[in-house]
């Protein structure tokens, strides 16, 4: 009956937790396309069991843009086990798929058919069973003996569902008898299930009750009523898919669930390869792929990073994780790859890097080199203990590429010496993924100074390079970003730069950052908490700088052909910059009636400056030199740039400096992501 998602989640939780006893590691749910999201959300919300090795246990096999992604999802599910959810249409496409490449064909065959999953659940809700053999012929190939066809669901009300099942069962067995004998009971059941007969009911011998259709044929109620009930119950499902408000509520619940997960930190492996172009997880895990690797550290807490521990990087290993370019400024054509370790491992490895990096570079001047741009590791090792341990470990064998056992102690691999690091093939071992809650140290997701780089918007609140080591997930200090608190943080605001340009059409980050591109820029404020804005802090805007960030049109209602670009500052800077706008915008517009103009539609900045202090500070800063486009140092004090006067703002080329990213949690003020009313 109703609540089957909860029931199946509880069943799967127990079975998978005891898979050594039950022998069941793969559970497959086949359902209609309109039910995939409901099954996925329902099971994930109730699935409390976490595997000891932190394997992924719920697999949305139906997700993907092409057949290759579906095959990759099957491969991951077959490897790690868990609950796989797939709709009948995708299942049939996989069954009908053919390629001369034997690997995907073997994956489909072994995962779905022979030997297939350990148990299969069939959900035929809202599907006409008579059409199933013709529409989905591949179902007959499933050899799994443990198969359960979920009973038809006639109502989300448990009592109503039971009453309708009783009515259906009674209609199925009353072929014998007469109209007079069964009609009183028929009326009782009709009242019980709230079925009001619209047409005359006839009695057909050996078939039971029926009504006459418009074409003159009989329609037997034992089949017509279940069909009506199935259609009625399918409507809420369609509403779930089609109504934005319902989907939004489910998305919020899912985000809240994800926000409760602690941040995960990983080690990165720097790759030097002769390949130019897309580099995928498949390349990284291929021992025959020509590349050198060496180690560092990177924050995987951002799901928008170049490569993270997010499951889709392993579900779809042919997707690019970075673009290798022949650009000489991109030293060694660098790329990030990920391997996860526990806190103990990370501290020692970072100390080890600091101890041996320069020595290695001196000994191998023509080979792969360590590039360490921000050695903040020092604050983790005040007494030098980590370095001593790291040096000792290096002598015994470096163990950072090996799987960590349950005791979380290092297990040196055979080829663990430092001199061998650049020859060890990188492999992604899912069982090596461990929790790590250490402060941000060493490199970030782009370690090359001077390159354009932006973190995920969640990480805008986490930029901090001077934290102390953290003992556990539950002891994160307030000034270290914790996704569990992310839903309590107000939207992040940034300064926007309004662009007035003669260009019509696509405008890209390349254009915004080109000092020779003809445009004027001036400043305002924009809400970056909304991911659907014209341009956000998402990494792909800078990963592929030729993608459009806004379409400039000749529409006269689009005044000045405006476009938003982003620069981030701390709260002190932002308040003064906003107050500065309020103080000088009208004056500027009056002085430049034929030039670029400030457009401020919502001057709610006043509520931040009740006593006028900010305006006084802003006016004083303006006299000394406006500094909102410059890098803020660690002390967060303004450092006026050479071209910092207000009259020169429109000539300053827009640049993104990672050091300017600071935490900002201010109330909603100024413009929203579209400031034109």
From TrEMBL:
Source taxonomy: Eukaryota, Metazoa, Ecdysozoa, Arthropoda, Hexapoda
The protein's name: Transcriptional regulator ATRX
Source taxon at top rank: Eukaryota
